[in-house]
Amino acid sequence: MTFSHLTGQLPHLRQDFAASIVVFLVALPLCVGVAVASGVPAELGLVTGIVGGLVTGLMRGSSLQVSGPAAGLTVLVFEAVREYGLAVLGVVVLTTGVLQLLMGALRLGRYFRAISVAVVEGMLAGIGLVLIAGQLYSMAGLKAPASGLDKLTALPEALADAVRSTEALASVGLGAGTVAALVLWKRLPRRVRTVPGALGAVALATLATSAFGLPVAKVEVRGLVGSVQLPSLDAFGELAHVGALGTVLAFTLIASAESLFSAAAVDRLHDGPRTEYDKELMAQGAGNTVCGLLGALPMTAVVVRSAANVQAGARTKASRVLHGVWLLLFAALLPAALGVIPLPALAGVLVHAGWKLIPLREIAALWRAHRGEALILVVTAVSIVAVSMFEGVLVGLALAVAKTAWEASHVRLEVMDKGAGPVQAYLSGNATFLRLPKILDSLEALPQDRPVELDLSGLHHLDHACRTALENWSARHSAAGIEPVKVTTGA
């Protein structure tokens, strides 16, 4: 079959082919960097990228969204591997995939769009802070503390240790140079910018390491087949522990929310078919199921790769499938190439990625327009840093629900007192226990020696707590020896 015949059957193949090369070049350093930062063999990051292209990429959902290992899950994966071991990671990812498949089949994908944006952005901000702090240690060739709070508080001491070591200074300098290259990449001539920034920065760092013989650590290469570890029956037994189940729930919530929010963002970048959220959730679930079976990293849809795919001119899902093919060919034919990549350069890539996860502009905009949402964002991020990922997300969700419940319980009490006759009180809105103190304070302030007519016809909702409290107040007021309180309802 000739190329012209093939392009006749696939009219957008030329554009998709070119876009797939760009996405491959963007994905390659990120797959490796996320894997190393997660504490797993570098090849497992490539495996997740390959599955994201060849499995998730073939499925329906979002046609131009690209999936693979994401910086947003790095901290959680690292903690899971540290706590339960690499053998259990595959079981956790596999269970996550099955849950996503089940949620997609139950058509729950659309409901992830109802998750507070402030919680999701707070989650990403918290992840970004912990990721940056952890990778700063990697840039210096030091071991990072376990908790997010310790990572931040121990940084000054780590910096003092690095200053006293020539090797650490060389490592920090290389990592800082990588970050600087990424920041300045957009200002370079257009011809240079055809190479993705992450790839260019890592390539420059690799060349500098080789040219100057810098004493820095490099990526350990085990080979693609040697890195794949199928889950054992013993590993499934870890799911009996509450902590492991909590990790599964955190993986499921974060991976699903990040993927579907990414889909909404990618839809705004092109005019093609819109995302089918339930099918996209099933596509992510299928990918994570396969990743779990192979013992690889969890996957999510990734905005950086997806945006690169759209901006490179991709028209169909063929581009993301082909990018998976190129990752597979690289992992199979050129695995030794990973061994020349300096670890501080990958740490620099992840520091830059972590910084982009912190929505500074969004925080400022929220503070001006919706301070409650800004507070939820900041508290979620701080909770993740201070406690853990799972608990931090739960705190954010609880705050969002509480804020919504508070705002939904607006109630208004109007009092008309003509100086003679009964006092008329009109209660309207939503009377819930959250506003009960305000309601009772206003009613108890009414004259005790006058009859009262209480009109409840304007209430949209009256919960049990408020109904009971109003009945008790009415009984107390009527016991004063005047006319009983007259209550009018909308029924």
From TrEMBL:
Its main location: membrane. It is found in: Membrane. It holds the Pfam family Sulfate_transp. It is a multi-pass membrane protein. Residues 13-380 form the SLC26A/SulP transporter domain. It comes from the Bacteria. Keywords: Membrane, Transmembrane, Transmembrane helix. The keyword Phosphoprotein does not apply. InterPro entries: SLC26A/SulP_dom, SLC26A/SulP_fam. The chain crosses the membrane at residues 17-37, 44-64, 84-102, 114-137, 168-185, 197-219, 239-261, 325-355, 375-402. This is SulP family inorganic anion transporter.
